[in-house]
Amino acid sequence: MSDKSYLDWPFFEAQHAALEQALDSWASQHISQQHEPDVDQACRTLVRQLGAAGWLAHAIAGSECGAAGATIDTRAICLIRETLARHSGLADFAFAMQGLGSGAICLHGSAAQRAAYLPRVARGEAIAAFALSEPQAGSDVAAMQCAAVRDGDEYVLDGEKTWISNGGIADFYVVFARTGEQPGARGISAFIVDAGTPGFEIAERIEVIAPHPLARLRFNGCRIPASQRIGEAGQGFKVAMATLDVFRTSVAAAALGFARRALDEAMQRATGRQMFGQVLADFQLTQAKLAQMATGIDAAALLTYRAAWQRDQGRIVTKEAAMAKLTATETAQQVIDAALQMFGGLGVVSEQPVERLYREIRALRIYEGATEVQQLIIARELLRAAKNKDM
Ligand SMILES: Cc1cc2nc3c(=O)[nH]c(=O)nc-3n(C[C@H](O)[C@H](O)[C@H](O)COP(=O)(O)OP(=O)(O)OC[C@H]3O[C@@H](n4cnc5c(N)ncnc54)[C@H](O)[C@@H]3O)c2cc1C
Question: What is the average pLDDT across 320-340?
């Protein structure tokens, strides 16, 4: 079992340890790594379960909307993602997408938008999606082409979005589109598009190495009321970045959960597998690997919970969240690979825990800003701080 001594770190308050313990115990009873083969149905079930048990109330903010607190508690979101990821990547995905998909409404939505969507998100009755990426605009978000043109009291959307998690099963999508107030990032707005709106269709379902609902979306003369715009026209990029500032740190937490599960699996294997007259853990080569895995996990956890704590203090976390995501996802990949190696042939058998983790971690190094993008963000912040000091 994972060492839980990190819950005593000064980043946390008493309610955080209690939350982790309650969720861990609930997940042990209700969530397994194995899910029904229909991934859409598995996700719907997980969202309903997480909503009914009250965990989704932590994915949003605003007590009047059924949230656990008045503001977003980043540490709680991170602990929930880490814990769920230890039990099941799909359960973590279901929780995370309710938060990411409704984050823009939570942070910048009108009272009417919040009342219409957030209570259903918290209860697990409405599934949310976040539609930012396009075929020609992934890392380079500001290159987006999907357009929203104002026509009286409506906007007309035309274009495509791709790699959209929950695409095909979501009840609503927060869609970022070019409204053209200014060039580049300053000419983008955010909108809520309900599933089933005429002119909006799922153009393609995408299969990936760790299956979860994913799709390319197409908008063709799709009309939505202007009241579905989130925040001011032209402020969509800021809305997207504010949402990602919360959830980027939580991607680090999910990676941490995968890594902790891999270390648990590795410890069991190392202490149980007999070879050459002793167990695998008796070899110093194995001990060196275990030491490296545990140290990497603690380093990633320190960066993750520093960023979460700092955000909860109301501070800007652009650099810290990037450091956390970069370190936790890259470390988790190495830890999982080392764990799989200890399992020998068993490690690559389909649906073994380490095989599953090996597939599940991969996309985390790409989405919500690839590793290289995080490196650029960290360097940009360092150089900006140095320049300001010189002035
Ligand atoms: C499983 C999965 C789920 C996703 N879910 C969502 C979602 O729900 N909503 C959404 O909007 N998007 C989602 N995405 C999209 C994701 O955010 C993009 O894939 C990501 O931003 C990278 O964009 P891209 O795929 O176009 O790769 P590209 O932008 O083409 O980048 C390819 C690679 O180039 C490298 N690179 C990028 N920039 C630089 C640079 N400046 N210098 C050097 N190298 C660089 C990186 O290694 C990067 O991985 C998801 C993606 C995946 C894989």
Answer: 98
